[in-house]
Design goal:
471 residues; mainly alpha; Sodium/glucose cotransporter; 2 domains; 20 helices; globular; transport; urea transmembrane transporter activity; Na/Glc_symporter_sf; transmembrane; Urea transporter
Length: 471
Amino acid sequence: MSEMPFLAPGIAWFLVVTFSVLWIALGVWWGKRGRGDAEDHMLAGRNLGISLSTATLVASWATGNTTLLAPELGYTTGLWGMFSYSRASLGLVLFAPLAVRIKTLMPRARTSGDFIRLRYGRLAWTIFLLITFVYSLGFLMTQAIGAGILLEALSGFDYRLGMLIVISVSTTYTIYGGMRAVAGTDYLQALLMMTLQVLVAVLVFNRFSPAEVHASLLANHPDRLDLLLPTGLLVAWNSGIFSMGEIFHHNTWWSRVFASRSSVIFRSFIFGGLAWMAVPLVTGSIGLVALAKGIEVPQVNMVFPVVAAQLLGAWGAAVVFLIVFASLTSTLDSLLASTADLIAVDIYLQLLRPHASDAQLKQASRTIVLLLGMATVMLCWPRFDSLVAVLLFTGALVSSTIWPIACGLYWRSANRHGAIAAMISGSVVGLIGYYAIAPYCAALLSAGVSALVMATWTWWRPEQFNWRRLA
């Protein structure tokens, strides 16, 4: 970077080393508290209570995208940019009743792939896994990109060095501790993020009151306050649909269902969604402050760290560093663990080694975590300038799975061929919309086409599924 970093190298290294050692030590310690078998490694003994269950949902969903992308949307699209990202909380809230249904129908299942395979057959399962793997790699990439951007913007570290540090830390304690390490560190990371974000917002708006920010935007950027702005409305609806696709299909959230006690599942998803909603509202408002004050940023995805550091000084940069470092590690560990478990159970155990021992399955999961971390580093080695482009591409794919999953959980007559056609047609139309119209409409088009195909095919050829097959 040509700009001077906001943190002195000594302070930056102190924060990196201190919190890297802390997360790894806690992850290893929590991992040692389990039974040591594969199921305990993957699902923490299926005994997470309300506090850990809610905290791991908030921490896993409060991603580097939330901290970096929400301010970017607020800065570029205004008020709707801030509100639209908060609609991603709908995914957690609307998944709550589905989570209860999943736990009831599949009390001993391990992955989201188990449901698709048993409900719709192996062809649908194969398509679902392809969508999941593309999404997982895309999501891992956004977190790695965010890690590089963070350390470069705040400390002057090379982009690749920051990426390597954050991925290495998350990979290390996830390998050793599994789900127990992920849930335990998520609990502390969620508390750290929420507390520090509120602190930053209070201090920023203490210097520039909301009335002052509003007056400046009204005078210089009135279009950014327009709640009927077509782009803003499109972004808002796309965010809500996209979040449903991400959460409904991905094993990160299914693994939380299987790992939590039945009595806490519904409440943890509701509480987690409502608590998470505050995160993009707080960070997105920083983007509005930057716009109102005319603060220049070298890249739009650096709005939050640059603005907080400029307005609050070096210690403000340190606070932002901790927020984003916690959000990145808390999301990376969840993605690594859940994706590795999906591959270990659905590919390694189901297809390659159906007679693998418990110890071999656990070792396979650990090895896959390492390989995923290495793959993410290689994919992100060339620098990307925007998190939005990488993230929204996957929306066209994951949104096509919403209705096959929802219908498959509640609708006995849901047709397996309809589910296959819905995922394929939704993904294709969504990708066409992404390139031909606008990235923000990809998820909407995908979900709409998928719903139409799923409903029409099931009406035309209803099936009668035996729910006991899922048990």
